[in-house]
Amino acid sequence: MALLDVVIDYDCNLKCTYCTITDEMRRRGLDAKEVAGHIEEAARRGVRSLSITGGEPTIRRELIPLVRFASGRGFDDIKVQSNGLMFSDRDYLDRMLDAGATRFHVSVHGHTGSDSAPYSAITQGGDESHELMLEGITNLVAAGTRPTADMIVMRATHEGLLDGVKDLHGRGVTSFTLWLVSLTDQNKPNLESLPKITEMVGSMTRCMDYAREHDLEMLSLHVPRCFIPGYEDHVYHPGFQEDVHVVTPDAVFQLSSSRLSGQTKTDRCEGCKWFDECPGLRDDYLERWGDAELTAVP
């Protein structure tokens, strides 16, 4: 599937502790006319899937007009990736849906349930932001969409992942993605945020067990299959063997070449049954922990 992935802006109304975006990057964004030009060009190539993210795209007034513009150019799969705060405004959400948005991913990083403290500590948005995020999810479910909850996997969150999944499932969420934290840019010095995958994999597979028991969609991003034997069907490597064209305020590139995607296979990968279906580990992970955890699956 061909996908146009647009990072419309680096700015955000939260400031998550693990975020890779620097204060200087937050001052950079794409002009709406430039975004429209990329949408137009992709439409001419026959692309019909669009993802708009950031930063936080909903703080841009041009977002809804751009969604409407893409819909008018034939895009029938339009995803908005957001922290969900603006979706607490049902009128705003209805206008987004009317413009043509079809899919929503909501960052719920640190959410474990009714206790707002873990979420607030990570997003630095306070209790109010936690309430707005949950109201946004409630509105998305009530509007008949199927929002996906994006959950960051790192030292401060992995033990609470299952509690968060259970709580959100109770609120009507049936789709989840588990994102491995990245040590790049702003978060590069925060080495303690990224423990070894083998230390966190039990928390992840417990979520996958719950997903299987309740027929939920649960995908793990950036973790090779060899780390979670028996759960390989939950593994997803964004941009690997896919045509994902990324546009950011800084560059235009294929997602497969991004620092946030798997990039490197080592000698320990030789002979693995998943070799051709796996991009390997991210370089920031290898720099932190090396490849000793990798085990080729015969």
Beta-strand residue percentage:
15-25%
Second CATH tier, the architecture: Alpha-Beta Barrel
* Helical amount: 25-40%
Total domain units: 1
Assembly form of the protein:
single chain
**Form type:** globular
- Reported by name, the CATH topology is TIM Barrel
For this structure, what is the CATH class? Alpha Beta
Rg from Cα: 19 Å
What is the terminal separation in angstroms?
Answer: 30 Å
Query: Regions with pLDDT < 50 over 5+ consecutive residues?
Result: none
- The CATH homologous superfamily: Aldolase class I
Report the sheet with the most strands, covering strand number, pairing sense and barrel closure.
Answer: 10 strands, mixed
Description:
- This protein is α/β, with parallel strands linked by helices and 298 residues long.
- Helix 4 crosses helix 5 (126-142) and helix 6 packs parallel to helix 7.
- The protein has one domain (2-261): Alpha-Beta Barrel (TIM Barrel).
- It has helices at residues 32-44, 63-72, 90-99, 117-123, 126-142, 161-170, 197-213, 283-289, and strands spanning 2-7, 49-53, 77-82, 103-107, 148-153, 175-180, 217-221, 235-236, 243-247, 252-254.
- It has a ten-stranded mixed β-sheet, with helices on one face.
- The longest helix is centred in the middle third of the chain and has 17 residues, at 126-142.
- Strand 5 (148-153), helix 6 and strand 6 form a beta-alpha-beta unit.
- The mean pLDDT is 96.
- It contains eight helices and ten strands.
